[in-house]
Amino acid sequence: MLQKTTSLRTTPRQKAMGTPVQAKATMSLAELILVGVGGIIGAGFFLGSGLPIRTAGPAVLISFLMGGLITAQVVGALASVAMDHPVEGAFKVYADMYLGRFLGYMQGWTYYLTSTLTIASEAVASAIFVRVWLPAVPLWALSSGFAAMIILINAFGVANFGRIESLMSVIKIAALVGFAAVILLMLFGVRPHTLTIPVATSTGGGFFPHGVGGIFQSMLIVIFSFAGIGVFATAAVELKHPKKLDTGAIVTITCLTVLYLLSIGTMLLVLPFERVSTNISPFVQALQYIHMNILANVLNAVILVAAFSVMAGAVFSANQILASLGQSGEAPRFTTRTSKQRHVQYGALLFTAFGIAIFLALSYVLPSSVYNFLVSASSFLTFFNYFIMLATFLSWRHKSRHKPVSRLAFGQPVATVLTMAVVVFLAGYALFQREQRLGFYACLGMTAFISMGYFFTHKFQRHRLEQN
């Protein structure tokens, strides 16, 4: 949900270069950590984790550990540059400064599209959660309703974004920890004597039922579970004490990885991976499987809150990036318009609402599973964003060898180069799955469209400068 933000004050030269000045800092370290965790844990994990579990089996735990290590390098890269340049626009501005305006433009717009796809996918996921209670209502009606609801909530403006996101984060963390605790307590006998808890047994294949290839194939969706780090990066500029950013980054990624491994590991103790459904949350399914239907309904409601939280965070970070693009003349000027009373960026909000509507419409028209299409397209764009963020860090590090580096960005420069190679490999490996190729084609088409937009935009800017 959009907070009451200060407008970007820029000189004409700064507008041309796309380098807005530092924003007002109002967020504590604890709020930043909770905003980071809250912006990442959503339907991409609660619902989407069913896909990699089916693909990799119990070895999905390795997949999530790999996802945590990759994300640690990316967040470490972002934190390192952000400590040196605490500005609104975050990684879009950094790419401008260190890789050139074209890649900065590409970074800004691909991240914006990733955020918009995330909102659309969370709306679809929310609809799937609600269909547990309302199976007769069409999926398209529910998802459209949830998307409209989050836009309307943002239209009225919310002044305390950090506090609201922090509260939602606490709820989600408590839900995952509580889920693991319930499973473990019941397995160790702390349960009614009339209730029998089955221990998961597989049909075979051991820990690697689909080999190492299963791990690689699952990574596209696993990365989507970590993709919300953009909220952490764009909210970092609000931190009261920028020097604590590195600590916030370490705690955020550590908490996420531990929560993911703990919750999936305990779920697999009672629910065989072959029985995991992709139509409902596997965590809700696990509670239903052990006949804890009341807790399953409670968890389903909490997951709905999680989806709303991620949608709110995605709108926040998307509008920040769009405002940066608008200020530098790389997005329509009306996207920078802000209401005087509530300080809501209504121009960016209308633009985002239109984009969400397009993605929701396409997801139901194209011949593919709705949720899988949105997640796959968003994940390929996330791989692109990760690659550019890491390349930006390498360029910054080359020019700023004396500057402090985040402890998450360990093993430089070898670790960053290796992570970039792994990102390219995983993106290519995902193409072997037919159902994920449609998302890649959509990503390719959007990237080509953005590239053409760059040359049109900058040709117009040069013409306007020549006239002046």
UniProtKB/TrEMBL annotation:
This entry carries the following GO cellular component terms, namely: membrane
One Pfam family this sequence matches: AA_permease
Q: Which residues form a coiled coil?
A: none
InterPro entries, per the entry: AA-permease/SLC12A_dom (IPR004841)
Stretches that traverse the bilayer: none
Domain Amino acid permease/ SLC12A, residue spans: 32-433
- What UniProt keywords are attached to this protein's entry? Amino-acid transport, Membrane, Transmembrane, Transmembrane helix, Transport
From which domain of life does this come?
A: Bacteria
The protein's name in its UniProt record:
Amino acid permease
Decide whether keyword Protein transport is in the record.
Answer: no
Location(s) in or outside the cell: Membrane
Any Gene Ontology biological process: transmembrane transport
